[in-house]
Amino acid sequence: AAELQEEALREDRGTTVSLTSPQKRPRRLYTEDEVEQLVVRRSNVAMQTMQTMALHHSSPLLQETFTPNDPVHGLMHLPSIVKVVVDTATFQRMRQIKQLGVCHFVYPGATHNRFFHSIGTSFLAHEMVKSLRQRQPELLITHRDALCVTLAALCHDLGHPMYSHMFEVFIHDLGRERRRVAEAHARTRGNVDAHAAEGFEVEQYESWTHERASVVLLKELFLELKEPLHAAGLRSDAEGDDFTCILELIDPPKRKLETLLETHRLKEEWASVIKGRPVEKAWMYEVVSNWRSGIDVDKFDYFRRDAFHLGIQRQFDHFRHIGGVKVLNDEDGVPTISPPDKHKDALREGLCELRKVLHRIAYQHKAVKKIETHMIDILKMMDEHVRVTGRDGAKLRMSEAAVALDPVAYLKLTDTLIEARLLEREDPKLEMATAEYENRIVRRMLMRLVGDWDVPRLGEEVMPGVSRPFPLPSAEAVASGVLECYRQCAHTHKPEQPVQDVLAADIRCQAANFHYGMGAHDPISRVLFHSIKTNTRSGFKVDIDARPLRQKLFVFWNPSPERRTDELTLQRLTMAFNNWADLQIKLHVAAASTTNSSKAVSSPPKQKPSSTLGRATRTLKIQSSCPLDM
Hints:
The protein is of the alpha+beta class. Helix content is 49%, strand content 8%.
């Protein structure tokens, strides 16, 4: 006790010499109560350290004997229990799921998978908790806390199906189609109860996420690995429910937490929302899936890993960030992860802007969007005929296996399943899907780009004096609007040539959002920064450097392969898209300058074909595969 007392006094009096000043920091006198508190604090830390060392010595599963070599992070040291989880069929399945879906058809190097991304994320989470544990012993981070965060990071992507995020778009498309059918049946039959039942089923498709699947598969994994997880120290007791904690770390109730944060009730009502850990450990819920700002180890890994395999020479120094963050209480007394204020620019340029760059030049590249649209068409064709065997021998469609979250059938939804069935050419029922894959993907007969439009933001010259952002229209509204303009003004461009019919099903529209991870909000404004010199805390509620959201509309024409070379029709469609976009801006500006804005938007004036429709009257940022000046 005497040694601890002397050590505590030396530490808190700051008897070390400053590197910037030859003088020592001023000494202060401590009361007996203060000395006693320091001794108790250091004694608790020493006791925890000894318990942790004893536990590590007694449990081989916690020793860092799993050392995979990663081309991104180098040699990684992880607890042995991580290898136990990795060596299961549920986890090994992620070897068959590419991290970037179909992006490798545009960037051939992007063939990396979810398997190594998950291990890399686990490594970064493990390093962050170790760093905090070493630098802030007062946090009393237990081995169970560290293990929960490490395993949550390891298993956060277990639920990704084939082609990663593209499959979610496929499921949501099926949901929209089912809703249209259900509404048509309800109008025909007038049966409210049947419509309600169909609506519940549709809702399952429309709200489906891979995080929900991750939770289901992880629960199955908990049962499979019950003994080794228990031997590693995971429990459900008065200290916390470790298994619930892991599930919550992967998929936290973000909307509820954000509402409580905004209303300053988070500390008081934390226990009503989060069951795995008390509010004193709230910072743990910002490591893997950061509900506050989205700045977490998942993004640290996939930003660097994706850039590496895409050949993009740009990266964020996440190890510097991990080594600099602290856990501090926010204004409501809730512990949060706080980086040094000098890291703000690095977070802005190295992380937030990098996300936008990756989305703009890779994830949502126009060719990637084309291939994704073709692959979704192919998946819809295959879903009618391909069946996977689920629990109790049930034969399920791929979409049914995903929505029902059948733990047996879902494990079979991998890239390998689709590619094998398409390439083997043995099932006559898949002849249409196979031909579509051959023409569109293999032979590269992709749909044509009518135009991609950078939707104007507030303050840009095309929307002078407008205080409301431009509302992004639905895909159906864009397609129908472009077709209407095409029918009205196609003959004004090269009128000596006949106008070809364009089917509504051949016009495809997709929206792309380029932002920092929180839509129109700036993640930096949600971060509590601290000064390493003065220990003050601050935030950046408004940052003039922030440009968080840029939206883009892609409009494609998907003709039959023999009509792909019809450049005149493509030019006329591009002209129609320009005219439609210009009309939307006119209506939006007019609505902003009149009191009856809703009427102005809902009842736009009908266009009349004239020579002025040949070109858009505003300078809109629209690009096309076949510009009008060709």
